[in-house]
Design the sequence.
């Protein structure tokens, strides 16, 4: 009956600008738009919906309650990291290794937390 997550929504004060950030920096494409809402789709089919926000943003911490980060998979960590650096993406620390996986945390144009990850072995 339940087959997976179709998309995750992010509220933004400027949905088009954030959608374009995902297009320009991560190779997503805007695949659907309606009434100021934008769906961006990754090359592997994963989707984000970017909707207009209301009110002020709550403080964001690495372990604050709620959704904490979006993990962006890459098949060549060094190349992906270097490309993001060349585009001026804001990193939240230096790359590191965890259980054989290479990763680094960064933020999108609105300050949402993401991390780049190359897994040594896929999760089961």
Sequence:
């Amino acid at each position: 009956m339940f087959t997976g997550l179709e998309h995750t929504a992010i509220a933004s004060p400027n949905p088009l600008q954030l959608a374009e950030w995902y297009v320009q920096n991560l190779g997503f494409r805007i695949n659907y738009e309606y009434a100021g809402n934008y769906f961006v789709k990754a090359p592997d089919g994963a989707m984000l919906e970017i909707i207009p926000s209301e009110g002020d943003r709550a403080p964001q911490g690495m372990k604050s309650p709620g959704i904490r980060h979006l993990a962006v998979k890459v098949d060549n960590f060094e190349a992906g990291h270097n490309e993001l650096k060349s585009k001026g993406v804001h990193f939240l620390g230096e790359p590191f290794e965890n259980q054989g996986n290479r990763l680094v945390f960064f933020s999108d144009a609105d300050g949402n937390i993401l991390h780049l990850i190359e897994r040594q072995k896929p999760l089961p």
